[in-house]
Design brief:
Layout lengths: L1 H10 L3 H39 L4 E5 L15 H9 L4 E15 L4 E9 L1 H7 L6 E4 L8 E5 H7 L6 E7 L5 E12 L4 H4 L2 E5 H7 L8 E6 L5 H15 L3 E5 H4 L1 H39 L1 H9 L4 H37 L1 E2 L4 H6 L5 E2 L5 H18 L1 H8 L3 H5 L3
Amino acid sequence: MINLRIAWRNIWRNVRRTILTLLAIAFSTALLLFMFAWQSGSYEAMIRAAVESTTGEIQVMDTDYHEKRGIRKVIRDPASLLQVIRNMDGVKAAAGRAEAFALADSGKRSYGVLVSGVDPEAEARISNLDTIIREGDYFSGNPQEIILGQALAANLKVGPGDELVILGQGRDGSVAANAFTVQGLAESGQPSIDRRLASIPLATFQETFFMRDTLHRIVINCTSLDQLDPVSASIDAWLDENASGLTAYTWDQLMPGLKQSIELDLISGYIFYFLLLVVVAFSIMNTFIMAVVERSAEFGILNAIGTTRFRLARMLLLETLLLGACGILAGLVIGVLGTWYLQVHGIVIPEAEELMSQFGLPDRIHPRLGWFVIGLAPALVLGVTVMSAVYPVIRLLRLNPVRAMHEQ
């Protein structure tokens, strides 16, 4: 307790320098915490936007279908599997899809498309297809409706109300053909999707392509991304016991490009954090080097009357920990309160709300606080603070008492 009181008095010998160091530590702690939460929230928004436009968070399909799409690689009893999945903990929604490559003919142009059969009601719960309609409407219940991507519709020179003929091969090898009325045009903001998006009601797809009651994919969304791994593991365990030949794939397996882009962004973030911590480290190191230099005579006298240099070094480390703890605590309070407020209310990107809403993206980015984020920022700053005291401690351990007592 005495050492603690002495250390506390020592760090306030130079009030201005101590306050500046505390501010540097608090600012870096709060900034790191906010940046970690911001990255976590923005990545979650990116993933949500991507999975709602295309893959969903998890997909169950034939093991070979992921690599080699074939109309015969189907899920044979999807109704019971869908029921099991929807009853699992952590599952928000699940829907079936079937798909086939076909030729779309508008009478003006022909174009190869990937026709997707979707359950309109269930699809609205797992994707944003119903919110990205730019012309026309979402499915209204007519079995002969089709929704196209705007780029595909432009290539085919069709619009809402026009007729489109789909010609392909059925699951049994026969010719699959049907005529549809364009119900709506969708724009996801991703050209690769908008050039091939062609969705029809699932029942009509199964009838046209002789699918009977089978599906190619079951698409699943979880209540949160934290539930992704537990839900995927539960599905895999059930499939191993009851449906061999089927596999559950998570979004990062289905979209490795998105995962890689997030990893690249993380690297740039790590560089920024490293530079910030280096600046803080030099600020703290400067404080304690000056403390050692200014108190050289004092340390020399204490060493001469019997206080070991190791005890003096422990005192300096205790001062470092006290200074770091005070700055980190202040930064933690400021960072948590500020980030929590922004997590609740979100951050609006200026002049981007209308653009983001057009593509079904949220108009606000919400930082995402978590125990890992709350613990990581203080731990990094504390580690840098302790490391910054290493050189001053080494200097103190090499102290020459006689020379130090003559330094004033």
